[in-house]
Amino acid sequence: MDTPTKTLTFETRLDLIHEQDAALCQYAELWNQVKFRWFANLQKPKAQQLNRTQFMHEMGMPFSYRVFQGVQQSIKGLIQSYQTNRNNRLVTLDVKIKQLEKTLNKLKKRCDHVAKKGCPQQAKQLRNRLRQKEVKLRRWQQKLSALVAEKQENKTPICFGGRKLLKERQALETGSAIEGWKQRWHEARHREFLLVGSHDESWGCQNAQLSPSEQEDAYQLKLLVPHQLRATFGTTIHIDHLQFKHGKAAIAQAVWQNQVKKHDKSIKGQPLSFRFKRDKKGWRLLVSVEVAGPTEQAEWIDDDQGVIGVDVNPDHLAVVELDRNGNPLQHRTFDLPLHYKNDAQRAAIIGDAVRDLMDFAAQQGKAVVIEKLDFQQKKRQYQKQDHSQYARMLNAFAYGKIKDLIETQSIKRGIHLYHVNPAYTSLLGRMKYRDRHGFSDHHAAALVIGRRYYGFKEKPPKQLIGINAKGTVKTEHPPVRMALGDYQYYNKLQRWYQPLEKSLDFLSGWRHFRRVNRVSYSVEARLDGRPGMNPDLIQESTPLLSAHPAL
Question: Rounded distance, CA 409 to CA 370, Å?
Answer without folding.
Answer: 14
